[in-house]
Design brief:
Helix content is 29%, strand content 22%. With 438 residues, the chain is an alpha/beta fold. The strands form six sheets. Strands 2-15-17-16 form a four-stranded mixed beta sheet, with helices on one face. A four-stranded mixed beta sheet has the order 4-5-3-14. A four-stranded mixed beta sheet has the order 6-7-9-8. Strand 6 (96-99), helix 3 and strand 7 form a beta-alpha-beta unit. Helix 1 (30-42) packs parallel to helix 2, helix 1 runs parallel beside helix 3 and helix 9 (328-336) packs parallel to helix 11. The longest helix is centred in the first third of the chain and has 13 residues, at 30-42. Bound molecules: shikimate-3-phosphate (S3P) and phosphoenolpyruvate. Shikimate-3-phosphate (S3P) binds at residues 31, 104-105, 178-180, 183, 206-207, 210, 325-326, 349. This is 3-phosphoshikimate 1-carboxyvinyltransferase. Catalyzes the transfer of the enolpyruvyl moiety of phosphoenolpyruvate (PEP) to the 5-hydroxyl of shikimate-3-phosphate (S3P) to produce enolpyruvyl shikimate-3-phosphate and inorganic phosphate.
Length: 438
């Protein structure tokens, strides 16, 4: 794979001079913000999102919904506190153009919404978006009654010819390449005439917590959802047709984006407090409490947030990350600095994420002197003494933050295109410097 040469700017990753001791306010969750936007746009009354994430992926989602006629206004929440978006749902209209960037949530969650619009909606995005799997959404929508023009590859670019309504009903989908196929169909399901019944037919299903997030958030706006966990058939989710409520929702901090900061506590034997860590959440990042404890830290969850403390040692880990794939780059970075080898399993679908993450991590860590090999479904990482060098990011926000974690321990690491963190965490360099007291 060729590194991106369009972004030549190099960011010297700060080297930690001692144990970090910081409070880091992590911005809102990408996954929660983009689901909340879609559900608010499909509701039958206005709603509020408080403390939404404002990053490339969520601004693309808001822009796309606005292009289809939805009102999304800046404001303060109903109680006067905090920044907020007020969402004013309307009839969804085409013609419209949607730029998905490289946002999985936008490219997968919005074609079903567009099928409810009363005109054509054209979807396009970054070159990488053409390579990311979308066939599950396209094929399922066609089976449910939508007309879609694409170039036959089952991918972007495409046009959904919305007719103002979609019949809906039962549909089968192989979501082994992305859980977002299931989430996409469920999110718009209440607005289909017959609702939707999604049956996953593939051998495996990644990122189950993200499907639970979809179900929880649907239920919170009044949808009736049956799931395998609620006594339904395995691998089958049913959403009944019905109106959705407009809610006043405060977005949780993005726990996957808390990862590099918690990792900094592990690397430096320091302490990081993340305020507002939810006591109960479907975010996969909550698994960090367990994974990073096994890797050598300890944590306490209080009413103020999560306090995470490193012991000075980082242990290798053998772990199946299939449920929490987006945590893989950060765990791989730590594993490269650990005192024993690691095996990260269950994440073959990461080859189709923002970049081929397994290839990118292998190449970039090895170029710094590491010893990483790809397996069929993950990585073997044998820690070695690393040296400085350029860490390429391949337009992947999580590659950039993974490189920054390595840079804490290894002098002379330079991150190419750290600005790619804007996908989900635009203030990363400032937050990182703030954590280090710079
Ligand atoms: O639904 C979501 O918000 C997400 C689901 C997961 O996608 P995949 O199932 O494609 O891995 C995850 O990796 C992505 O970062 C966000
Ligand atoms: C896989 C990710 O994003 P996307 O929503 O674009 O799939 C991610 O954020 O790690």
């Amino acid at each position: 794979m060729a590194p991106n040469t369009a972004h030549t700017a190099l960011w010297p990753a700060p080297h930690a001079s001692g144990a970090v001791d910081a409070t880091v306010h992590v911005p809102g969750s990408k996954s929660v913000t983009n689901r909340a936007l879609v559900l608010a746009a499909l509701a039958s009354e206005p709603g509020w999102l408080r403390r939404p994430l404002r990053s490339r992926d969520t601004l693309l989602m808001a822009g796309a919904l606005r292009a289809m006629g939805v009102g999304i206004e800046e404001g303060v929440g109903p109680d006067g506190s905090g920044e907020a978006w007020r969402v004013l749902p309307t009839g969804l209209h085409g013609p419209a153009s949607v730029d998905v960037g490289n946002a999985g949530t936008v490219m997968r969650f919005l074609p079903p919404v567009a099928a409810l619009a009363d005109g054509p909606v054209r979807f396009d995005g970054d070159p990488r978006s053409y390579e990311r799997p979308l066939h599950g959404v396209i094929d399922a929508l066609r089976e449910l009654g939508a007309r879609i023009d694409d170039d036959g590859r089952g991918a972007l670019p495409l046009t959904v010819h919305g007719s103002g309504a979609l019949e809906g009903g039962p549909v089968s989908v192989d979501a082994s390449s992305s859980s977002q196929f299931v989430s996409a169909l469920l999110l718009s399901g209440p607005r289909f005439n017959q609702g939707v019944e999604v049956r996953h037919t593939g051998a495996s299903l990644p990122s189950l917590p993200h499907i639970r997030m979809t179900v929880d958030m649907l239920r919170a706006v009044g949808a009736q959802v049956d799931t395998p966990e609620s006594g339904g058939e395995p691998n089958v989710w049913r959403v009944a047709p019905g109106a959705l409520l407009g809610r006043d929702l405060t977005i949780e901090p993005d726990l996957s984006n808390a990862q590099p900061f918690l990792a900094a506590a592990l690397v430096t034997g320091g302490k990081v407090l993340v305020p507002d860590w939810p006591a109960r959440t479907t975010q996969p990042g909550d698994r960090l409490r367990e994974i990073f404890t096994e890797m050598g830290g300890s944590c306490t969850l209080t009413e103020y947030g999560l306090e995470f403390t490193g012991s000075g040692a980082i242990h290798g880990i053998d772990v199946d990350l299939g449920d929490v794939g987006e945590l893989t780059p950060g765990i791989a970075a730590l594993a490269a600095l650990a005192d024993s080898p690691s095996t990260l399993r269950g994440v073959s679908h990461l080859r189709l994420h923002e970049t081929d993450r397994l290839a990118a991590l292998t190449k970039e860590i090895n170029e710094l002197g590491g010893d990483v090999t790809e397996t069929a479904d993950g990585l073997h990482i044998r820690p070695r003494a690393l040296h400085g060098g350029i860490f390429h990011t391949y337009d992947d926000h999580r590659m950039a933050t993974a490189g920054a974690v390595i840079g804490l321990a290894v002098a002379g690491v330079q991150i190419e295109n750290v600005a790619t963190t804007a996908k989900t965490l635009p203030d990363f360099p400032e937050l990182w410097a703030g954590m280090l007291g710079n």
